[in-house]
Design a protein that fits this description.
Chain A is α/β, with parallel strands linked by helices and about 400 residues long. Chain A contains 14 helices and 17 strands. At the A-B interface, α2, α6, β11, β12 and α12 of A face α2, α6, β11, β12 and α12 of B.
C-alpha cells in the first residue's frame, strides 16, 4: 500500500478521490500496490462530509509525513500551489497535477527539482483533461520530430462555437446559456479570450521543443468577436470555425498562436464538437495523428491524475526523464507568418475589383441572405501585410484566419 | 550506445532502420543513449545494398551476441518469427514487434517469457500502425475500467469503403483499383474478409480484459458483400458503413466481433476515411476517447517499433509489467447479443405491413432511385432472433448491423 495526499478538495480533487476509490482494483493491479489517500489538504471544513477524517489545513503535516509518497495537486492557480509543490518535491514526494497555470509557469523548474530529489512531477491532466496527450508526447512519440500540434483544448469555447454553428445563435446568447448550464464560468474571460488555451499550447510547445515556451510570447485571440454571419459564410465554404491552439515547427523556429480559424471538412478537428477536446499531432515519420476525448469535467480530468499516480507509484524512488529544459526559447515572428484570410467586405464600399487589387487574386463568397456584403478569401500572405491592408480598408468588416492541416 | 538487430528487412524492417537513422538525435535523447543497428536478419542477399554489411542469415549469430540488447521483429507470420522471438527473449533481449499474427497467437506467453528473463516483449506496431493505442491501453488508461473498444483497424478495407461511399463505385471495381495502387494485396482475403481486423481486436480485447482472447472465437464478417446500394441507403440515413472491430464489456462478459456496421455522423469514427485507422475507447471514468492516425505504411508502423525500442533501451534489464495473462477467456454469446439491423427488402415480395409484423415496429427508408425495394430499420433484437426471421423471409435482400456509440 502506498500513501497519497490530495492538495485541494474541489471538483477535480474530489474526483481524484472518487476514481482512486471506484477503480481501486484496476489501480492496485497497475501500480503493483494499492493506493490510499491519507490526507486531503483544504482550508474549508466540509462539515458532515466523510472527507473530514483526512482533512488537514497545514501542508507541513503532509510534507513531513514520510509515509506519503505521492501528492495530487488539484488546487489550481500559482500560489500557494507553487510553494506547496516545491515543498513536496524537495521532500522526495512525486506530484501529479491538473494545474495548467502552474505547469505553464514553472513546469521546467519543477521537473528539475523532481529530478534532483529522485521523484516525479507529472501533469497529464493539465492539457486535454482525460486525453492522454502529455504521455503520448513524452513517451509514445519520443522517436518523432514533431512538426505540428494543433488542438481544440478548451471545452467551454468549443461548446459555444458548436452551438453558434448548429443553432445559428449569437455569441452573447450562447455564452449566457453555457453559464446557466455550468459549461462556462461566471467570469468567462480566461476561456473566451483564449488565455486558457494559450497556457495549454505553451505546455505542448515546450514538450515539442524540449525547452521552455513562455505563454506570454504566444499571440492569443479569443472568440468574442465571432458572429452568426461568420458561421453562415463558413457553412457556405464547407468549413467551420474552431478556436485552435497551434504550434508549428517552421524554418524560422516554433510558431505558436491561439486564434479562431476556419477549417475544412478534411481537417481531423472539423468534427470535434461540444465540450470535447482533441489534439492533432504531425510527426516527421508518423504523419498525421489525432487524440480525442473529454477535455474537462471532474472524472475525466481526475482519471488523468490517477494515471499519473499509477506511474508515480510504479516508479517510486526513480525520476523518469521528461525532456523540458528551463532554457527559454524564442518563438518565430508571428507577423511574418503566412496564411490565407477570410474577409467580410461591405459591398457598397469595396467592389470586388478593389478587393482583388488590395489583397491579390482570391475567391469571392456570396450569401443571398447578406446582400449588402460579401466574403473574400485572400491568397496566402503574411500577417503583417494582411493587417496593414485590412486596417486601412474602409468597408472591411471582419476577418478570420484560414487553416489547412 | 545500445546495440539492436532487425529480424526481416522487408517494408517495415527497412523502415525501422530508416527511422532510427533519420531521427537518431531524438531517439538518443529519449533513450538516454544512441541506438545502433548491428545486424539485419534476412534470407535474401540484397546485392549492392548498404544493408549487406549488417546482413546475417543465421539467427544464432544475433541471439549469441551479448552486445545485442534489442530485437525488432518485423518478419510477420507465425514461424520462424515465434521460434526466433523466444530465442531472443530467453537470451534476455527485448523484442519489439509489428507482427500482429504472432502477438494474437502467442502474446501472453511471450510476455511471460520476457518477464522470466527480465526483458520486454513490446508490440505497439501490431495494431493501428503509428497510433499509440497499445501504449495508451497499457499505460495511460490503466486506471480505467475499459467498457468498449471499437476500431477501424484495417486501412485497406477503410480505403475501399471510403471510395465506395464517395464515388458510388462497386466493391470489385474499387478493390481492383486499390490493388493497382498498392493499397490492397494481390491476395486480399486477410483484409477484405476481416481476418486482419480480427487478430487486432483479439489483441485489444486481451489487453482490455487482462486475459487471453482467442481470435478464433471472434465472430468475423468481411466487406465483400457490401454494395453501391448499401451506401445510397446509408447516405439517406446520414450514416456510413465502416468495418469495425469491436469489443464490449457486457453483463455476459466481453462481446467481440468484426463486421461492417452502419454508424451515424455523431459517431467519432464516422469521419475516419481512406487508409487512416482510428480506435474509439470508452472508459468508466474517462468516458469517450478516440485515437486516430496512419494505420499502416512503412514509416508510421516503423515509428511505432522505434517507440518500443526507446522504451526497451530506457528499461534494459527491467521487465515492465503488461497485464495480459495466459488464461483464456470465454467471450459473451454473440447470437444472444442485441442490436438494431438495417434490411433491404424486395417491395414486390414483402409489404411494409409484413416487415413490421416480422421484425416489429421499425422505420422504413425509401430511395427514389430504387423503386423496386425499400430499407427497413428493425427495433433492437438479438442476433439469433433477427437471423431466424431474415433467413426465412422471401424477399429479404441483405442486411447490415447498426451501431450506436
Amino acid at each position: 500500500m502506498i500513501e497519497a495526499a490530495i492538495y485541494g478538495y474541489g471538483n477535480i480533487g474530489s474526483g481524484v478521490a472518487e476514481v482512486i476509490e471506484k477503480n481501486q482494483d484496476r489501480i492496485e493491479k497497475a501500480a503493483g500496490q494499492g493506493i490510499h489517500v491519507k490526507y486531503v489538504l483544504d482550508l474549508r471544513e466540509f462539515e458532515g462530509d466523510p472527507v473530514r477524517e483526512k482533512l488537514v489545513h497545514d501542508v507541513d503535516i503532509i510534507v513531513n509525513d514520510p509515509e506519503v509518497k505521492i501528492i495530487c495537486e488539484t488546487m489550481g492557480g500559482n500560489e500557494p500551489a507553487y510553494t506547496f509543490t516545491k515543498k513536496a518535491l524537495m521532500a522526495g514526494k512525486s506530484v501529479c497535477t491538473s494545474n495548467k497555470e502552474l505547469v505553464a509557469n514553472h513546469g521546467a523548474e519543477l521537473i528539475r527539482i523532481a529530478a534532483e530529489h529522485q521523484c516525479n512531477y507529472f501533469f497529464e491532466a493539465s492539457v486535454g483533461g482525460g486525453i492522454p496527450i502529455i504521455r503520448t508526447l513524452n513517451n509514445a512519440l519520443k522517436q518523432e520530430n514533431i512538426l505540428n500540434i494543433s488542438g481544440i483544448v478548451n471545452g467551454t469555447t468549443n461548446y459555444i462555437l458548436t452551438k453558434m454553428e448548429k443553432d445559428g445563435a449569437a455569441f452573447e446568447e450562447v455564452l449566457k446559456e453555457a453559464q446557466e448550464l455550468g459549461f462556462a464560468e461566471r467570469n468567462p474571460e480566461a476561456d473566451v479570450e483564449g488565455y486558457d488555451a494559450c497556457r495549454k499550447i505553451a505546455i505542448l510547445s515546450s514538450l515539442m521543443s524540449g525547452r521552455s515556451v513562455d505563454y506570454q510570447d504566444i499571440y492569443t485571440e479569443g472568440i468574442t468577436k465571432l458572429t452568426t454571419e461568420d458561421f453562415l459564410y463558413a457553412k457556405k465554404m464547407d468549413k467551420t470555425v474552431k478556436l485552435l491552439a497551434m504550434s508549428k515547427l517552421t524554418e524560422e523556429g516554433y510558431l505558436a498562436m491561439v486564434a479562431p480559424v476556419l477549417i475544412g471538412q478534411e481537417h481531423p478537428l472539423y468534427n470535434v464538437n461540444g465540450v470535447f477536446n482533441a489534439v492533432f499531432v504531425k510527426g516527421n515519420m508518423l504523419g498525421d495523428s489525432m487524440y480525442y476525448g473529454s477535455g474537462a469535467g471532474k472524472l475525466p480530468t481526475a482519471s488523468a491524475v490517477a494515471a499519473d499516480v499509477i506511474e508515480a507509484a510504479r516508479f517510486t524512488g526513480t525520476h523518469l526523464q521528461i525532456d523540458w529544459g528551463e532554457e527559454k526559447i524564442a518563438l518565430a515572428d508571428m507577423p511574418s507568418s503566412k496564411r490565407s484570410f477570410f474577409v467580410r467586405l461591405d459591398r457598397n464600399k469595396v467592389l470586388e475589383a478593389k478587393a482583388a487589387a488590395e489583397f491579390g487574386n482570391g475567391r469571392v463568397v456570396f450569401l443571398e441572405s447578406l446582400p449588402e456584403e460579401y466574403g473574400y478569401i485572400t491568397p496566402v500572405m503574411s500577417e503583417r501585410e494582411f493587417a496593414e491592408k485590412f486596417e486601412k480598408l474602409d468597408g472591411a468588416i471582419s476577418r478570420i484566419r484560414i487553416e489547412g492541416k
